[in-house]
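Honest question from a wet-lab person: if I give you the sequences of every part of a complex, can you actually get the arrangement of the whole thing, not just the pieces? Trying it with mine:
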Amino acid sequence: MTNPEIQSARPTEMAKAYEHQPVEQSLYAWWERSGFFAPRADAPNPPFVISIPPPNVTGELHLGHAMFVTIEDLMIRWRRMQGFQTLWVPGTDHAGIATQSLVEKLLRSEGTSREAVGREEFLRRTWEWKEKYGGQIQNQMRRLGASCDWARERFTLDAGLSRSVHTAFKQLYDDGLIYKGTYLVNWSPTLGTAVSDLEVEYETRNVSIWYVRYPVITEGWAGPQHAWGSGRWAEGATEWITVATTRPETILGDTAIATAHGDERFATLLGRSAVLPALARHIPIIADEYVDKEFGSGAVKITPAHDKNDYEVGKRHGLAQISILNKDATVNAEGGPYQGMDRFAARKAIIADLEKEGLLVKTEPHTMSVGISQRGGEIIEPLLSEQWFVRMRPLADLALAAVREGRTRIVPERFEKVYYHWLENIEDWCISRQLWWGHRIPVWYLPDGTMVVPGPDEAPPEGATQDPDVLDTWFSSGLWPFSTLGWPDQTPDLATFYPTSVMETGYDILFFWVARMMMMGCYLTQTEPFHTIYLHGLVRDEHGRKMSKSYGNVVNPLVVMGEQGTDALRFTLATSGTPGQDINLNPQRIESARNFANKIWNITRFVISKLQIALPNPQSAITNPQSAMTLADRWIVSRYHRLCLDENRLMEGYNVGEAGRQMQDFLWGEFADWYVEIAKVQLEGDEQRQQLTREVLYTVLEGTLRLLHPYIPFVTEEVWQYLTRVEGGEPGPTHSLMLAAYPAGDAAFIDAQAEVNWGMTQELIVAIRNIRSEYKVEPARWVAATVVAGDRAGMLREQAALISRLGRADAAKLEIVESLEVKPSQSAAIVIGTLEAYLPLAGLIDLVAERARLTKELEQAEADVSRREAKLANEGFVGKAPANVVQRERDSLEAARAALMALRGRLAELP
RNA sequence: GGGCGAUUAGCUCAGUUGGUUAGAGCGCCACGUUGACAUCGUGGAGGUCGGUGGUUCGAACCCACUAUCGCCCACCA
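Yes, you can. This is the full assembly:
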C-alpha cells in the first residue's frame, strides 16, 4: 500500500473520537510494507543500532516485553527521525530448557517420551513446533508498533548463529578458556541437567536440623558387631562425636568429620577415626578452618561430593569424594541399604534407623535458604559430575575494564557497582546442559578418547562421536549483538552496524545476559558490543506486588492494547517512572493515556477545521520572530521551542519518562487549554491575523506531533496524515511522520518577555474566573471589569479581547487603566502583585463574604511579605546568594508589598 | 553479613547539577454540553516532602544516623 492509498482510505471528515483498532492495523502494515523499518542507506547521520533482547520462542507477550519494545522503539524512532541510520535487529531465543520442557509435555500427552522417540525425532518434533507456533511473539511485537527490521530477524538456533556459536566455542577452547572437568555442579534432578549458579534461586525455608552422634574407635571397641538396623549396631562404643546436619541422607557420602582448630572439646578425638552410621566406614576426625566452633555441635560431617564447602575441605585434606546419588536423585550403590530410594525417602529412612540405633541426639527447627531450580522449582542438588566450563576471570577483566574506562556506560549509573561486584567475584561458568534442544557442543571424541574441536567449516574426523551435551542457552545469547550481524564473517552489516549503540533491557538480566555479552563481545570482537546499557525496571501491579497468576493480578498487554490502544499502553509504560525503577502499573493511568490520544485527535480535528485550505507554506510566517505575531502567538511559539530543546536534552540523557510527561503537559495544558481558546478569538480578526493564527496552530501542532511520535506512533501518524493532507496533490510514498525530521528547537524563538507577559494575562483571566465561580455568576453572564495595571496597562489593553472572551468579561465594560482614583463599590477585588482588578457584581456581592475572602488573602500577603523581609534582612543571604536570586527576591517583595497595600486599602473601603 | 532502591496530596507517581508560592494524573467538592474533545471544560479543597541531627544565606534535593517496605549478592553443618 502506498501512502496515497493510506490517505485516500481516510474519510474526509475525522470521526468525533479516535478509534485505535483500524488505525493501528493499517498503519503498521503500511510502514512495514513500505520498508520504513530498514536502515536508510542515505541517512545523513551515523548508524544507531539496538539488538532486541530476544524473547523465548515459546513466549507469549507479557508486560516485560511491552516495556522493552516501548522503550527501544521510542529510541529507534527518535534517532530515525533525527536522521541516524537506524537498525533494530529482531529475533527470538531457542530457550533450551523452556522449549524442551514444552515439547516433552506434548510428547507425554501423546503417551510417549523424549527417550522413547530418540534424539533425532525429538529435534524434528521441536523444530516442527517452532515453525508452527514460534512466530506468534513476533506478531505480538508488531502490535506494539515495533519498528524493527524484520528482514534481519534471527533465531539463536538458525544456521548462521550456529556457526557463530561454533566459532566462539572453538576460539575459547583453542585459547584455553573452555575446559571439561568433574566438579560439583548444581543439578536439577527432574530436568536431568546441570544448571549454572545463576539459574539457582534461594528460598528461605523452615527445616529441621538433626544432631547425630557417630561412635569413635577406641582401644576397647573396633567397630560394630551387629547389623545396621538391629538396634545393637553401636553396642559397646564408649566415645562419640556429634555432628549436625540438615541433609541426613548425605551421611552416606561422609569421608571425614571436621572440628575447628584448637577446639578443646575435640582435642582427644583429633586424628582418630569415627565410624559412619549404616555403612560402618571408618572416617578420620580432622581440624579445618572452615568449621565454626559456635555453630551446631562444633563438629561437621564432611561430604565432599555433595556440598560445596565440604568439597573444598576434602580437597585440602585429600579426602575421597563419594557420590551417593544417581542423576535422578535416587541413592546409588554407595548408599548400601538405602540404594534405590529417592533422596527424600532415604532421608526419612535413615532418620528412623538412626533413632533406632540410638544415634539421633536431637532434632531442632532450623531456618536456612534452599537452592531452588529457577525453571523446575525443585530443590537443586549439588552433584559431582563431568561438565564443560568457561574460565571467566580473563573475560570478566575485559568486561570490567570496558565499563571502568567509560567505553560502555550503564544507565542508571548505580548498576555499575552491581556489575563490578558480580564480575569481580565471578566463578567459572558451567555451560554444558544435558538437554537435546540447543547448540550441541562442537567436540568430537576419537575411539581412543582424544578430543577434537573442528572449525565450523571442517568435517569432524572419521569415526568420531560428538559430545552429547548442548550449550547453555545464554552462551548463544551472549553472542547476539554480533552473531545477528553475521559474525564471524566480515559482512557489510557487521562492518556498518557493529558495535551496536544501546543495549536496553531489564536489570533482572544484567548478569545472565548483559555481562555475558560484554565478556563475549570484548573477547571475541575486540570491542565492547554497545556504548550504553540502559536498564529499565520491572512492571508490577498497581500496589507494587509482583504480577503472578496465583495473585490473579496479571495484566495482559494484548488485552490492554485491544481495549485502550497500543499508544495508551506505550505512553503509560514510558512515562510511569524513572530509569531503572520498578513501575507500579496503574490501570487508571492507562485510561488517562487513552484519553490523551483522543485529545490529540480532537485538537487536530479542531486545527484542521480552521485551516480551511492548504497552507501555501505553513512554516514561512513564523520563521521570523519579529513578525506580526500577537503576544499569545509569541508565547506559544516560545514555549514550543523551549519544549523542543528540553526534549532533545532529556532524550539524550535517557530520561524518557520526563520527556513524555513534558510533551503531554505542553500539548494538553498549554496548547489545548490555552492556545486553542486564544486561536478561536484570533480567528475572528482580520485576514492577516487569521492567517498567522492558522500558521501558529499548524506549526506548533505539527511539530509537537513529531516530538510525540516516538512515544505514541499510531495516533500521531494518523492525525498527521490528516493534518498534512495535500488537497489536490499527491503526497509522496514516503510521506510518513516516522520519516519526518525530529524538531531540534531554536533558542532564537524563546521569548522570555512574552512568557512573562502572557503569564500575567493568564493569571488575570484565572482570577476573574475564580471570582465568578466563588460568586456563583452564571456561566452565560458577561461581567464588567476594571483592571488597574500601572505600566502594564498598555500590554494588557492589547490582550483585552482575550481577557474578555476567556474570562467572560463584557468587552464594552472592560476597562484597563494605569491608575484609579475611586475604587468601584459593590465589587469583588482581585489583587495579583501590583495588579488590581474589580468586578462590579451588583446584587451578588455579599459584604461579609467579600471581607472574609479579602481578609484571608490579606493574611497570606502579610505572611508573604514578612517572610521575604526576613530573608532580605539576612546578611548571609544578601551577601552570599547570587545577585539574580537576591534581585528576584527584592522584586517579589515589592510585588508582595503592593498586594498587601492594595488589600488593606480595599478592606478599608468596604462599607 | 555486604550492597542497592523506595518513602512527596486519599491513590499512582514527577520534581532537570540546592534558589520565588513543591507539580501531574486519577479520586474528591462546586459549576458547566458556546460547533475540537463529556475519553471534555472551568473553578476549588488537599502535602510541616518517613524521622532525628548536621552542612549551608537557603535543603524534598547534600552529609550522618535511624525507621519501615522492597530488591540484589554472599553464606547458612
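Two things worth pointing out. The first strand of chain A starts at residue 47 and ends at 51. DSSP finds 29 helices and 29 strands in chain A.
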